Amino acid sequence: MKTKLKLLAGGIFMAMAVNSYAIDGAINFHGAIITQACIINGGQDIDVPLGTFSAAQFQTIGEPSPKIPFTIPLANCPYATDGSQETDHFRIWLEAATVPGTPNLIQVADEFKDGTAASGVGIRIVDAANPDTPLPINTLPELVYDITGEIMNVNLMAYYESFVESTSITAGVADAVVNVTLDYR
Fold first, then answer.
1. Which stretches does DSSP call E strand in the chain?
2. Which of residues 22 and 54 earns the better pLDDT score?
């Protein structure tokens, strides 16, 4: 009987030892799922023609091309005049390949297989109301857009920017695809 008791006690202690470990903290996840969200451009892609420029135009590193305005049209946004909407604002999360060492400069490529890709320039996107502040790429921005109605527009601008000297820029197609997510936190 003593042997069985010792084996049972030993088994209990071993089971407790396997499950005992130090806890240094906890991660608490918070969030929500909403039933209504803005629809971007009726579900269609937005094409922004940035233009054709000479490599010589980019005389110094960081030299921009002209800023080209474009609009992200939104419909079906969660807006209620009685204040019952699930959220009253959003942020624009932009995802794209970026120029190494320049996290907010979108890398150009031959996205549509039109020819050889240019090098030495990237694409910047800025809010039209804050044209000196690039929108972050692949990270949540601080800029918040208030939902002002079920239908609304977000006005942005985009442009090429050099990241090498003009003599190192190579000619070619300078396309990019940026995925857009509206984050309602």
1. 39-40, 68-75, 89-95, 98-99, 102-107, 121-127, 130-134, 145-146, 152-162, 179-183
2. 54
CB 110 within 8 A of CB 136: no
pTM as predicted: 0.81
> What is the enclosing helix (H) or strand (E) of 18?
helix 2-19
Query: For 6-17, how does the pLDDT look when each residue is reduced to its tens digit (9 = 90+)?
Result: 555 555 555 555
* Start-to-end CA span in the chain (Å): 63
CA dihedral of 7, 8, 13, 16, whole degrees rounded to 10? 140
Closest-CA residue to 185 (of 89, 44, 46, 119)? 89
Contact by Cβ (8 Å): 94, 85: no
CA atoms of 107 and 98, how far apart (whole Å): 5
Cβ contacts of residue 114 below 8 Å, gap of 6+?
173, 175
The token pair at 146 is 């208030």
Answer yes or no: are the C-beta atoms of 61 and 165 closer than 8 Å.
yes
